[in-house]
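Reply to dn_fold:

You asked what the input looked like. This is it:
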Amino acid sequence: MSDIKQPGMGALVHDGGVAFRVWAPNADAVYVTGDFNDWSEDATPLDHEEGGYWYGNLADAAAGQGYKFLLQSGGETLSRIDPYAREVTNSVGHGIITAPVHEEHDFEPPPWNRLVIYEMHVGTFHRSDEGEVGTFDDAVARFDHLKKLGVNAEQVMPAMEFAGDLSWGYNPAHIFAIESSYGGPEAFRNFVRAAHEHGIAVILDVVYNHFGPSDLDLWRFDGWGEEDKGGIYFYNDWRSDTPWGDTRPDYGRPEVRQFIRDNALYWLDEYCIDGLRFDMTLYMRTVKGDEADEGDALEEGWSLMRWINEEVAERFPGRITIAEDLRSKEAITARPEDGGAGFGAQWDAEFVHPIREGLIAPDDAHRDMGKVARALAHAYNGDPFRRVVYTESHDEVANGKARVVHEIAPDDPTHWAAQKRSTLGAALMLTAPGIPMLFQGQEFLQGDWFQDTVPLDWDLSKEYRGIVRLYRDLIRLRLDHQGVTTGLTGGNIAVTRVDDEQKLVAFRRWHDGGAGDDVMVVANFAHEPRPDYRVGFPEAGLWKLRLNTDWRGYSDDFGDFASHDVEAGEERLDDLEASGGVSIGPYSVLIFSKDR
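and this is what came back:
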């Protein structure tokens, strides 16, 4: 052992070998065992430091070697994987010593008002070998599809080491280690690098509201625990209870707070990713999700989220943190100095639920245009880009629910109505103010519900390439590729027509306003077309039809309704300066703008 002290936690590779540090305040003695000492149980004891830490430096250890900690506690010897292990053989195996990698990627993520996110589950996104779990390398093989589609950010469902090879990922066993069945750390680095080369940002889903609950070496890590609870990393009273197990981290313990904070910054620092999506923050800031009960609040969880967000904003400007909270709480995305948690954006329940309700309802009479209008115009903190808008996510297409196309036509998700109304929803998602998000396969009518055992059917991307083209064209307009729909990148919206009798809404989008900026969107939620339906326009003149979702080029089943450019006259309507007649097909969206 050397007397050199290295800062940090876990296995610390340096010029003089590898130092090891672990927090185990209730252990009587701690040893490190591994390839460097032939897995001896007592050859390499660690020294006790203040605060319950144990430390030692081993000149003969090196990156790539396996290791574990052996903790003697109350007469027992506990074999534990390092909580800070950057790589593991599997969730019940051992850690692998990993040298830190500090890459510099020449990549800047898009500004938030130009983000278009694609939510991806690595294990099912693409499998090169049928029957095997998908890997990061498999996903990279489909990046050309994402590039052509036009999305510029991937939100990767949790990829930290979990129990088994098949999982959604929301059962993390080792939060610093990339899932071994996906390819491990080097495969993830290559994935991020390839994404950046394709102009695509990477946002990683992280789970801090609970750990495990299975294959969890953190459970009674050093032997101590109370009330049959989990020990030093967890609450040991009623606050430990979560919907996923009795494993809520103790946000009040400084060492646990540091552990979670270190993990969040680790992904941004060492892997050069572009953002984090926090799973169900409601259960970080409350115990049971009962906001009406002051006693249910977890102030330590709230302050931990705020601390992480402050550090991300300071150290990684331009990177985004996204909360899945789903309680429409303004404070989630409010600034820390204003008492907020400081997230960049949050998933918007005020959009997805009313929009899906309007799409899925079997009868037009049950489609509420007032609810649709409110969903379109909703914002947090006066900024619509503080919300993520979507019609499908991993939660919305599972847990008793299914894909939009399946909900509309369970026996045939490629039915005309399923195609029409699902793309109607997609058009609203990509024209409403907010950060739009697709769920994998949505763009080629993937049906049924999400399961970690069922990969995407990529044959559908060819069979329904017209629908893929529709999503591509919508994304191009959303990102103003032609310079004539700048308003779709702006934060302004006015819902100018809410016609619940005819089941139609119209809205204006703009950034600064004027030709090439102002955009008018008309959406028909009825089975019947609306020929020559008069709506307001921001100014008189020729408004060109940039996209008609009923175009037969998108699907042979579509009607190709005779929609057209509009010559708006100076007659005021809908509180706008001009008006004109539009002709719109059933369950369709029209997008208009003026040339500059």
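The chain has a mean pLDDT of 97.
Hope that clears it up.
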